[in-house]
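Q: Could you fold this chain for me?
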Amino acid sequence: MQQEKIYRAELTACFGDPVDENPTGVIEEAGYEALGLNYRYLTVRVEKDRLPDAVNGARAMGFRGFNLTIPHKVAVIPLLDELTEAARLIGAVNTVVSENGKLIGENTDGKGFLTSLRENGIDPAGKTVTLLGAGGAARAVSIELALAGARQINIINRSEARGAELASSVSEKTKAAAVYLPWIRQIRIPAETDILVQCTNIGLFPDVTGKPDVDYDSLRPGMVAADVVFNRPETPFLQEAARRGLKTITGLGMLVNQAALNFRLWTDAEAPVRVMTEALAKEFGLN
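A: Sure. Below is the predicted structure, expressed as C-alpha cells.
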C-alpha cells in the first residue's frame, strides 16, 4: 500500500532586525535537503517590540525551533519556558528548541566560535583574549572561551555598565580573570592580547564598510584577530589586522558550526557539515 505524502513541513526560522542578509537559511536548507528532511527555514524580520508576538506565533504554529539574532538574544529569555545550562551561564539565547510544547533556550554561538578557532589551529587555553563589545555575541564567546581555559578576558565596551557587568559575570561563573576596559576613542589593544575578537555588529550589513574605532597600529603580528560578522566575510576590521601581519579568522566558521549544532537540536540527526559549508561558500562566491 502506497504511503500518503505528508505536505506539512516542520518549521524553523530566524527572527531578527536587520535580518535580510542573514544566510543561515541557506545553510540549514542545504542540510535538510541533503538528508531528505521535510523541514523549512524562514528568515523573518521581527522588530524589537514585536518579539513577543513572533514567539507566540511560533509556539502556536508548532515551530520545531528558531534562531534569534540582533536585537533579540537577551530580550527573548523571559518569553521562554526553560534555559539550558549554557544559555543560563551566558545570559543570552540564539537558539530555541520546542520539546513537547515547551520552548527551551540554548546558546550555540560560543560553541560555534570555539570550534572555528580550533579548526584554525588556535587553542584558547592559557591565552589572553580581548573582546570588542559586550552584547549577546560577546557574552557567548567570552563564557565559552573562559570555560575552554582562557587565562584572561578583557572586555572593551562603550557602555561601562554593560561591559563591567559582563566582566563580572565571566569572573564569577568561570576560572578566568575578566576585566572591563572603557572604550574611549581609538583605544589601544592591550599588548598581552593573544586573541582579539570583534563582537560588535560593526561591519554587518548594511554597514559593510564600518570598522571598530581602535588604534590598529597597536595590533602586533603575534595576535590572532577574529570577527563574528560574516557578511562580508573579509570585514574592514580583518583587513586592517591582516595588513599588520595578524592571522585572521572570519565569521563564516562560527556561522556554519553554530548552524550545525542547531540542526542537530531541531532534527535529532547528525548535521551534514560538509554540505552546509559548501552551500555557504557558494553563497559567498568562495568556491
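A (continued): The chain has two domains: 10-107+253-283, 110-250.
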